[in-house]
Here is the input.
Amino acid sequence: MNSTTLKSAAGAAQMARPAPTTKSKSDEFVRIENVVKKFGDSTAVNNVNLNIAKNELFALLGSSGCGKSTLLRMLAGLETVTSGRIFVDGEDLAAMPPYKRPVNMMFQSYALFPHMTVEANIAFGLKQEGTPKNEIKERVADALNLVQMGKYAQRKPHQLSGGQQQRVALARSLVKRPKLLLLDEPMSALDKQIRQKTQLELVNIIEKVDVTCVMVTHDQEEAMTMAGRIAVMSEGHIVQIGSPSQVYEFPNSRFSAEFIGSTNLFEGVVVEDEPDHIFVESQDLEARMYVSHGITGPLGMPVGISVRPERVKVSRERPGTPHNWARGVVSDVAYMGSYSLYHVRLESGKTVVSNLSSSHLMSEGAPAYNDDVFIYWSPSSGVVLTQ
Ligand SMILES: Nc1ncnc2c1ncn2[C@@H]1O[C@H](COP(=O)(O)OP(=O)(O)OP(=O)(O)O)[C@@H](O)[C@H]1O
Ligand SMILES: [Mg+2]
Here is the structure.
């Protein structure tokens, strides 16, 4: 037998550390079926299947060139699919004429018209559609209120901060009352501090409106802060879909584990497989690894074990547990404010990162640079990865 199966009840892990559930938003609004997009010989989007519920804020996350914008552009109807189908609100997008598509996209570089006031920028799309003047006035005022930019209505874009311009761009998208709002790297023009503030503002605004939102980002913190669910993409594929905590706590592959946050990845082989745990032997650890959840498989199967830095403990004392520990030397300590990052070089040569609270660092007997130490973690802290 060389197949792998998830342990019962979706992994014993879920018993030890239940994966949080997302809000139950059951009614499907977007359905992406076997979608492929090729440009000549190269495949930008490779057989993507995805359902997005009404009023969800969904993030496509992945590194540059993995196909995020292309998928979003197909949702907007700006790019045709090479094969597969996309349904929005039950209707096949390909069969819908562009003006009937209930979709609005905010582009990766959301240029506002520099010579127009904020108000005129927001009104622009409605004017083009021939919306009656009174209605334009009302809707622009509502949109300005929504993004709290009412008092800046007469300013020009260059008289606004980056975050304010961003909100105007959002108002310009929302004023058309799209059912599906597509945001391509909405924060890309902002520096880090404004970015974090704007992320939360944007979520608040979107939650006030009856809209389903798909956003694209290559910034995992941004996806985790803003989205209810995330699809991790790599080379045109979707690697994993889940809530931020599901993807972080239960990565399904080495790619996901390393892409979302940082992790310690140990390679080993299965040496014992029990219903509620497995033992793995790794060259990096003196003790066997005992993992209480994840995937079970045949003896000798190569697996990766992912252990997040905040789950790795560092001590000068040998841990009481017979499993999940190794000897090493503290090779670096970086003080980060509320926490400190320890780098521990194991006898195998591998460096393990541990994230310890700085209050722990201040306590008596805390390990210091160049100390001989032990690293260890609990059986529920590791995740078994077979891909
Ligand atoms: N019009 C096009 N013609 C040819 N190739 C394209 C075209 N648009 C995109 N591609 C290619 O498709 C792949 C995916 O591009 P896409 O713009 O979707 O990436 P992305 O994930 O949005 O990246 P980024 O984070 O850099 O914006 C890339 O290899 C890109 O070069
Ligand atoms: Mg892009």
